[in-house]
Structures are given as structure tokens and as C-alpha cells.
From TrEMBL:
Residues 40-59 bind DNA. This is TetR family transcriptional regulator. The keyword Cell cycle does not apply. Coiled coil: none annotated. PROSITE patterns: HTH_TETR_1, HTH_TETR_2. Signal peptide: none annotated. Residues 202-218 have a biased composition (Polar residues). One of its GO terms (molecular function) is DNA-binding transcription factor activity. Keywords: DNA-binding, Transcription, Transcription regulation. Residues 17-77 form the HTH tetR-type domain. It comes from the Bacteria.
Length: 237
């Protein structure tokens, strides 16, 4: 049979569009169950129902697969927020984070960090990468707030903003204390805002408005007060 010009014969099975998310999902599962050392590409391939070649076509090493899978988990569980204010952004991200760490999988992620990061440099690298991604997003949120004119301190540090919350989770995991609940998001946001917002600018603006309002009230004609335009004046006999 003569080949049809311009049409290439199909070779192999069609690409599975669900393969990558499925591989990531099982990579995280095995990572949490066994740690980095115990997770193998063979086991991930078997669990995901793909060949090793399918994994290595997408990720050149187990380290890259583990990093990508964990980053994907955090991106889905704790997505970025752009609500129009720094307080709104923090509140939404904190609520997502608190919901996540109060799940079985979220707590397992924190426990893996506590138990493995100091022992295994490759595990530590995974968590550094996750934190670095969140730091980049936090810096972008601060930059957006400054552009909007919000009084963000020049000393506001996105690294510390991320690390202090991560530290709360690690300490709770180490001591066996329950994680803060999603209902604690507002309280934790207030703590962060105390560190990043220039309250003196806000207080000065509030004082200026109060002074202006007081001056306006003093300048009101007595006839307006007598006529009740600004409320009922007491009757003086």
C-alpha cells in the first residue's frame, strides 16, 4: 500500500492527559508514607499505572519529581489570593493554610518536614523550595499593596511573614498541640498586620479627619442647631 503523503502513521499509545496529575498525586502519597528515601520511581510508576519511561520523560530525577509533586500539592491546597487589599489577601491565604494543616494530609506534610528535613538534605530542599515559592507570592502581595497606596512599612519582610506562620505549624507538630483552626485566621492576620502596616500613617490620617470634623462642627451656625438640623437640642428653660 502506498503511503498517504503528508500523513504520518501513529505510533504507540495516545498520551494520557491525566498521567501527570496522577503521578504527582501518588508521588506525594508515597513521600508522606515513606519519606524521600523510601519513595522510589518504580513504586510511583506502579501506583500511577504508568511505565518508568513515562515518568522520566517528564522528570529527569526522583528529586525533581518530589519537588514538583510537593509544590503542586501546596499550590492546590493553598492558592494565592488577590482580593484588593493586603488584609484580604492574608486572610484568604491564612484560612486556606489553616484548613490544610487541619487535614490528615496537611498534618502529615508538617510531620514529614519535622522528622525528615534535618536528617535528609533532599527532603530539606523540597521544603525550602515550597517556602521560597510562597515568599515570592507574599512579596508580590506586598508590592501590589504599595501600588494601591496601602501604608506598607519599608521593613516589611516577606521571608519572616512566611517563616513565622510555618514556625507555628512546626512547633504545634513537635509538641503535639492542635493546629490553629480556620476561625483563628483573623487573629493571626492581625498579628502580621501589626508588623507590616505603618500604623502611624493611618493614625495621623484619622487624627486629621477628627480635627477637620471638629472644626466643621464649631463653624456651624447656631441657627442650624436651634432649628434641629443636626439633631434635637435639649430645651433650656
Amino acid at each position: 500500500m502506498e503511503p498517504i503523503h503528508g500523513v504520518r502513521p501513529r505510533r504507540g499509545r495516545p498520551r494520557d492527559p491525566e498521567a501527570e496529575p496522577r503521578i504527582r498525586r501518588y508521588a506525594v502519597q508515597l513521600l508522606l508514607e515513606r519519606g524521600f528515601e523510601g519513595m522510589t520511581v518504580d513504586d510511583v510508576a506502579e501506583a500511577a499505572g504508568v511505565g518508568k519511561a513515562t515518568i522520566y520523560r517528564r522528570w529527569a530525577s526522583k528529586e525533581l519529581l518530589a519537588n514538583d509533586a510537593m509544590a503542586d500539592l501546596f499550590d492546590i491546597a493553598i492558592p494565592d489570593a488577590d482580593t484588593g487589599s493586603i488584609a484580604g489577601d492574608l486572610r484568604q491565604v491564612y484560612r486556606y493554610a489553616l484548613e490544610f494543616v487541619n487535614t490528615e494530609r496537611g498534618l502529615a506534610v508538617i510531620r514529614l518536614a519535622v522528622s525528615e528535613a534535618n536528617r535528609d538534605e533532599r527532603t530539606a530542599a523540597i521544603y525550602r523550595d515550597v517556602l521560597e515559592r510562597r515568599i515570592v507570592l507574599t512579596k508580590a502581595a506586598l508590592d501590589r499593596a504599595r501600588t494601591r497606596g496601602e501604608p506598607i512599612k519599608s521593613t516589611a519582610d516577606p521571608v519572616l511573614m512566611v517563616e513565622w506562620m510555618a514556625g507555628v505549624f512546626v512547633i504545634r507538630a513537635l509538641t503535639g498541640q492542635p493546629m490553629p483552626s480556620p476561625e483563628d485566621a483573623d487573629r493571626l492576620v492581625d498579628v502580621t498586620l501589626q508588623a507590616v502596616m505603618d500604623r502611624s500613617t493611618q493614625d495621623s490620617a484619622t487624627q486629621d479627619r477628627a480635627t477637620q470634623d471638629s472644626s466643621t462642627a464649631q463653624a456651624r451656625p447656631e441657627s442650624q442647631l436651634a432649628n434641629g438640623e443636626f439633631g434635637n437640642a435639649p430645651h433650656i428653660a
